[in-house]
């Protein structure tokens, strides 16, 4: 799902209860990670819920997969994957996740802990992108 589609879908809902349900549905649609991928290397520090992000590919096309033990957070993972997956390391570093977070209205409707977790996930995605870029340009 592209960012444009995500914004359009969010705009279809009149209230936040429906948007929360949509976020949970997005998370339910994620491809499950294997037991081996639920490890400390993939675990996102700074999240109250458990979150794992896996990055694959090359610096020109990084794919992300993820999981969480909390339904809403798993939906946030799905949103981040739709924003960042399939982009180059350079493109990932240029994305203003905070602006997107605000545009979706998440800033005003998530608890501070979930907001902090969202930004912790963004930090891990950026760190992984930097690692891919360093491998390409040592």
From TrEMBL:
This protein's record includes keyword Oxidoreductase: yes
Coiled coil: none
Enzyme class: oxidoreductase
EC nos: 1.1.1.95
Domain Fe-S metabolism associated: 8-127
Superkingdom of the organism of origin: Bacteria
Single GO term (MF): phosphoglycerate dehydrogenase activity
UniProtKB keywords: Oxidoreductase
Family affiliation: Belongs to the SufE family.
Protein name according to UniProt: Phosphoglycerate dehydrogenase protein
Organism: Candidatus Micropelagius thuwalensis
Gene: serA
